[in-house]
Amino acid sequence: MDSVSSVRDSLPEQHRAHFETLRQEIITFTEVHGIPRESLGKPDLLREVTGKLSTQDLERLALLLERFEYLLKNGEPKKEEIDPAKAIEYGEKFYHLREQYDSQVELLEEVGILKEGVILGIDGHEYPVPTLEQIASRLFERRETLKTKHDQGFTKLLLVPFGMSLDALQETIKQFFIKYKKSHSFDLDTSMPLFTSGDYQGADTGDSPNLFYYPQSFDEKGHQGKTKMEILREQEDNQDSFPGWTVHLFQPSNSDSQDTEAPMGFAHIPRQGKGTSQGDLVPRPSLEASKTPNEYLSILQNAQDDKDSPYHGETGMTPEDWITAFMIHLSETGKPLDDYLNGIESASNLTGAFFLFSYLVPRARWSRGSRRIHLFGNSLLGWVVDTGVRSSVML
After folding, report:
1. 72-105 confidence digits (pLDDT tens)
2. What is the DSSP string of 152-214?
3. Is the predicted pLDDT of residue 257 greater than 70, yes or no?
4. How far apart are CA 368 and CA 340, in angstroms?
5. Residues 132, 198: Cα–Cα separation, whole Å
6. Domain boundaries in the chain?
């Protein structure tokens, strides 16, 4: 595994993330089982140091090395044959996957996002919802690299219809609110259930979109973020993606009981000094409120190259993520997400995106005072005591 960056860069761009994922799985396996890395290139030494491994572990290591060798030799990942039943069984055991998946698909159908199993993207294409089998297989494939995140509580599934327009998604949550209030005791301003600043209107469409996704910095010229259209085009050529969709794992609101029941809702963002630590393998302190968007993005970006960071592999939310999560959270818990005026929760900086023209980071919250959602922007250096960040692991 010498000259890692040069080997990775020699691969087609769409397969470099797979290279890193597979490489990290091998490293994690060797560390967990006390296998010296130098033995990987020496068959005799490798046989000696793996002699005490169980048959199952030996088969797992052989498969990882075989897949890695195939990727380097052929420039593309090997199509792995995974028993769907085995993958679903794994998903059920560790994520209560079927219950989570079925309930979210049902909600997406009820609110009109999913029509006959597909969404309509901003490019005019129809994108089928990822299947239970596809998600289960992804979880099974990445079980080694996800082990630490699972231990930290990242078990809450979120299916996001990323490809649809943000305007359409905003209209959807308005109608969701009105329908929800008819059957629930919920204090809502039905005349304006959603307030948005002007930055959001048409932000992801047109010839010059204002909204850029997954920036590596908030620099005006060096942000390396991409428009929604660019991401949709990349997904077409990336077999590791779910075209038109993003699929995430979050920490749930019922983290204390998620081992015995399905994860429900999404964990709130704690105020400064009120966070906790979760996980035994790599303890993860909560990302508390009171930092700037720049600081939060820096934490998450620095963690990408640091496998020992408790935030390794995490990404900030987008407006699409947050709107979808809000509907699911309210449906499952009966409480609005990011109810910042209750003195416990916080508003959310959505650092998975930013508005290039106004140079703002999307910010979202529920306001019990005005009885509506607020979607607006936060300055990059804006320090707010009641605003933080919620991050996820993207599958």
Report:
1. 888 877 766 677 788 999 999 999 999 999 999 9
2. TT--EEEEE-TTS-HHHHHHHHHHHHHHHHHHS-----TT-SEEE-GGGTTTT-SSS-SEEES
3. no
4. 8
5. 37
6. 4-74, 101-394
